[in-house]
Specification:
Structural class: alpha/beta
CATH topology: Rossmann fold
Largest sheet: 6 strands, parallel
CATH class: Alpha Beta
Number of domains: 1
Oligomer: single chain
Helix content: 25-40%
Order of helices and strands: EHEHHEHEEHEH
Strand content: 15-25%
CATH superfamily: Alpha/Beta hydrolase fold, catalytic domain
Radius of gyration: 15 Å
Shape: globular
Length: 194
Amino acid sequence: MAEVLVFHHVQGLTDGVSAFADDLRAAGHTVHLPDLCEGRTFASVDDGFAYLKSLEEGEDDRRVAEAVEGLPAGLVLAGFSYGVGPAQRLAQTRPGARGALLYEACFPISGEWAFGPWPDGVPVQVHGAAGDEFFQEDLPAAQELVARHPGLAELFVYPGERHLFSDRSLPSYDAGAAATLLERSLAFLERLDG
């Protein structure tokens, strides 16, 4: 079974993100779920970003470093939206990553915003909604990842326009798309064990 580190989205460690982690645990995986907002949740994406902007410079990175401290090298790194940043950065820069699950965001693997090239041998899935304005901005980066690493990278685009569609505790939840996302994620983790 995989050991997965999941980073929540900008609205905080919501009940929906916790429920997703529980779904992975129910399938036999070990899941670490740090709270980068230290117990706070936010009613909107804008409120979450306002909180992050209020932090001292470097505090966000310090919390991510603290979350990964002491964890083994062979992690699957997962993140939802804002949480894709730390998940993807660690997958690309921390030696030994087993895989990555990037939900509703993706950073470039080339150019000035890149964490660096995608590491050899690290499989990745990217998931997002076709009409989601946030994901649309990142779609070219996801397409580049798949084009450059066709044997490692998969891109799944879901119908709809909701951001954070997989969080069952938010009004943006789309039960059908979220169920498919979970099914594909579990299949990905199962392949890592194979």
